[in-house]
Design a protein that fits this description.
Blueprint lengths: L2 H5 L3 H9 L5 H19 L2 E4 L1 H15 L14 E5 L27 H7 L3 E6 L19 E2 L2 E5 L5 H8 L5 E6 L5 H7 L2 E4 L19 E6 L2 H11 L17 H4 L8 E4 L2 E2 L3 E2 L2 H16 L3 E4 L9 H14 L9 H11 L3 H21 L5 E5 L16 H12 L3 H6 L3 E8 L5 E8 L4 H14 L12
Parallel strand pairs: 2-3, 2-6, 9-12, 9-13
Antiparallel strand pairs: 1-3, 4-5, 6-8, 7-8, 7-14, 10-11, 13-15, 14-15
Helix pairs in contact: 3-4, 6-7, 11-12, 11-13
Length: 470
């Protein structure tokens, strides 16, 4: 197989090729490491490349493959992936996007890391993140800005911008990320990928605590819905003492993508109040997808836009208080995080608790508004990817306003804990990826994956590779 085509082959197909012994884990790992060496200085996708560890692991897996029974191998045996630099891997740097912490070596693994290793993955390195995971772009001072492989002048999104940039450019087969306000769905939207925010409680934060009252979750980023679902199967599961949890589904999430969904009731929105309507490209993507869903036999109807007027203030309060709670020295933070830190320091405990309570009340309203629908179809962001550094010269208050307006369709479903997936639908006239998100009822991850797979199989075509990645 052509090396470029292999780099962009979905992770499940790569795992199959390894089982057939058509390729080896070492060959695949070396292919990605060569691409990282060549393209990462331009893209800024990785903060840390774990070259020696990845080659050693891939070599051991290649040797094991020679005598192993393919049926007994773990599902992603030998497949290279990336891990976001908010998730520690023992013995390697974990910076959280803070330049002063570039060389800070993690002492313990994040709770997800053993699951990834048990699934057979080869870890290539730690991908770029917005500082502390705070922003929908990935440009922390002291690091290269993370760029969009489709257009280097534009952002890959954030805060899982590095994972999205790496995956879209063929620098890994699949990527781990997290989503506290669109941080998986947004980068997927910006880079023409599939990104899923699972239901609250689907993925454990063990062994650490969950500091955002259920707003955030780890999640998968893939080339296809099937890759994304299979990765969710690996990541999901209760760990003793989790503050939120869900029972495991009767069948795997991957299996959910392999059956046609029954007729579903779908409502669609093209904007949110008080922000307004999405721009023409994002709105048209929703309308086109609504028509396609209707042609597939689903019951589709427009819905009034949700009103986020009561959500913005408590969500922002909780978000900025986490920055202060992280106990990072003020002087190492970038200007926006410094400003948010300062704002958080003015908030007394009573106001914070009222904000958390308000979030819960608004969450109930969001779920109630859509309870008669199996799926809600919505924009991911209100406009396509912004340019790198586009808001850098603005005052902090202006940047916050711009962020709120851009990502508005995502945070409501972090608040409600509902599953949501971003899928690509094509491109704007200027060549930037575009997409939509599908939101399910609470805990209905299988339904979301099933309808996303149906759309992928019948309507949306795989994107051509960006010229940069050849």
């Amino acid at each position: 197989m052509d090396k470029t085509a292999l780099a962009f082959t979905p992770a499940l197909e790569q795992a199959h090729l390894i089982r057939q012994k058509t390729i080896s884990p070492l060959e695949l790992t070396e292919l990605y490491l060569e691409r990282i060496e060549r393209l990462n200085p331009v893209l800024g996708s990785y903060f840390t490349v774990m070259t020696e560890a990845a080659i050693s692991d891939a070599q051991q897996k290649t040797e094991h493959l020679a005598t192993a029974d393919p049926a007994e191998l773990p599902p992603f045996f030998g497949v290279p992936l990336s891990v976001k630099d908010l998730n520690p891997i023992a013995g390697f740097p974990c910076s959280y996007g803070i330049a002063a912490a570039k060389d800070r070596i993690a002492e313990k693994d994040d709770g997800l890391i053993p699951r990834l290793r048990e699934a057979g993955f080869v870890i290539l390195g730690k991908t770029a993140t917005a500082q502390l995971g705070s922003f929908p772009y990935t440009e922390p001072p002291g690091f290269l800005p993370t760029r969009n492989p489709w257009n280097l002048a534009h952002t890959a999104g954030g805060s899982t911008g590095g994972g999205a940039s790496a995956l879209a450019a063929g620098l890994c087969a699949i990527a781990q990320g997290s989503d506290g306000g669109g941080s998986l769905r947004g980068p997927a939207f910006c880079c023409g990928l599939v990104g899923m925010k699972p239901s609250r409680g689907r993925i454990s934060f063990a062994p650490v605590g969950e500091r955002l009252h259920g707003l955030a979750t780890n999640g998968p980023l893939g080339r296809t819905v099937a890759d994304t679902a299979a990765f969710l199967d690996i990541m999901a599961g209760y760990v003793t003492g989790d503050p939120y949890w869900l029972p495991s589904p009767e069948t795997s999430f991957l299996a959910a993508t392999q059956v046609e969904p029954s007729t579903l009731k779908v409502g669609f929105i093209t904007g949110v109040a008080p922000i307004g309507e999405a721009d023409d490209d994002c709105k048209q993507a929703v309308l086109d997808t609504a028509r396609q869903l209707e042609s597939l036999g689903h019951q589709v109807e427009p819905l009034p836009p949700p009103d986020l007027s009561e959500l913005i203030e408590p969500f922002t309060t909780a978000w900025q208080c986490v920055i202060a709670e992280a106990n990072i020295p003020f002087f190492v933070l970038e200007k926006m995080n410094r400003w948010l830190w300062w704002r958080a320091c003015q908030i007394r405990s009573g106001r914070y608790l009222r904000a958390v309570s308000k979030l819960q009340v608004v969450s109930r309203q969001i779920v109630a508004q859509f309870q008669d629908y199996d799926i809600v179809l919505a924009p991911v962001y209100m406009q396509p990817a912004i340019r790198v550094g586009e808001w850098q010269s603005l005052r902090c208050g202006q940047i916050l306003d711009n962020i709120i307006k851009w990502i508005a369709p995502c945070p409501p479903f972090n608040a409600s804990g509902q599953p949501a997936i971003a899928i690509p639908t094509g491109f704007t006239d200027t060549g930037l990826p575009i997409g939509v998100q599908l939101i399910g009822r609470p805990a209905a991850d299988e339904t979301v994956l099933a309808i996303a797979a149906q759309l992928e199989h019948t309507y949306f075509k795989n994107c051509d590779r960006p010229p940069l990645t050849q």
